[in-house]
Prior knowledge:
By secondary structure, this protein is mostly helical. It has helices spanning 2-17, 30-33, 44-58. The protein has a domain at 26-59.
Amino acid sequence: MTVARISAALLVLLLLAGCGVEPWVRPYERDRLADPIMSMDRDPVSSSYINHVHEAREGARGASGSAGGGCGCN
């Protein structure tokens, strides 16, 4: 029983050790994270193009996170 408690306490301490690192992204690291290749999508470049075509056909933008109105004049 004590071995289980000690190992559980060590596991909790190990997991909490990751919280001590700086949580923010440095300005010079943001360009790498904003790259479309970092997206969780399987083919981010193609999906971006398809989303653009869909928005142009619909004449409006909705719920995709892009800014701008329906006129296409970003």
